[in-house]
Design goal:
six-stranded mixed sheet, four-stranded mixed sheet
């Protein structure tokens, strides 16, 4: 039996979705993305759910694309899947809150960008490492570029550098950065306020907020997915991914 990588629990009007794939640091494998989409659909269809909490098990929220699958040529539809997840999060008629108690890298930032509210512990770091592997953050740029100023986007996209939660809040990537010991309480308080909203009020207000993002995904999503897939398949990226995986195995 295949081990479940994404868990769903519902209580008090809140659907909690937990990424739990420790063997690859919650990388965006085909299985994880499929299960995440299924859990989001279940939360949408549950009339008792007013808000969705997306979180992770372990100290990594998401490490980005599953490079093992990509290097083996098994992830050709991966970019299209991450585009679809961003659209699903943005169009979900219930607010999606992301709790970051773990690091976020590369493609994982697409989930962050698509969410409505993102609260991170102050020690969490982020990095768009694609440029160092012969790639570009094409698919996730759909949700990230509307969040960031052009200067901030150029900085973190081109440098691939690691930056912290305070900077992420300052440039618009996340909503709030709080001390690690206050994260759980802050998330709980945020969700408690959200569940006071009526289903129609939440859905229509979210539609106002995400209209431009959804239009961008619908307009540019397929082209971005194709560009990303072509880069993953390129000789330069394949060589870089193989070198990265080799270093990780010997580290």
């Amino acid at each position: 039996m295949t081990t479940e990588l994404v868990h769903l629990t519902v209580a008090g009007g809140i659907a909690t979705i937990t990424l739990d794939s420790p063997h690859n640091r919650n990388a965006l494998s085909r299985q994880l993305m499929t299960e995440l989409g299924e859990r989001l659909t279940a939360a949408e269809q549950d009339a008792e759910v007013r808000a969705v909490l997306l979180r992770s098990g372990g100290r990594v929220f998401c490490s980005g694309a599953d490079l093992s699958e990509a290097q083996q040529g098994l992830a050709g539809d991966g970019p299209r899947a991450i585009v679809g997840l961003q659209r699903q999060i943005a169009t979900l008629p219930k607010p999606v809150v992301v709790e970051l108690a773990g690091q976020v890298r590369a493609g994982g930032l697409g989930l962050v960008g698509a969410a409505d509210i993102v609260i991170a512990a102050d020690w969490v770091t982020f990095a768009l490492t694609e440029v160092r592997l012969g790639l570009a953050p094409s698919a996730i740029s759909l949700s990230l570029l509307p969040r960031l100023t052009p200067r901030a986007a150029a900085d973190v996209f081109l440098s691939g550098r690691t930056f912290g939660a305070p900077e992420a809040a300052a440039i618009g990537l996340i909503t709030r950065c709080v001390p690690d010991g206050e994260l759980a309480a802050t998330v709980a308080e945020t969700l408690a306020e959200l569940v006071k909203g009526s289903p129609q009020g939440l859905a229509e207000t979210k539609r106002l907020l995400t209209g431009d993002l959804v239009s961008r995904i619908d307009r540019d999503g397929e082209q971005a997915a194709q560009r990303s897939a072509a880069l993953f398949a390129s000789p330069e990226a394949q060589q870089a991914m193989q070198a990265f995986l080799t270093r990780r195995k010997t580290a």
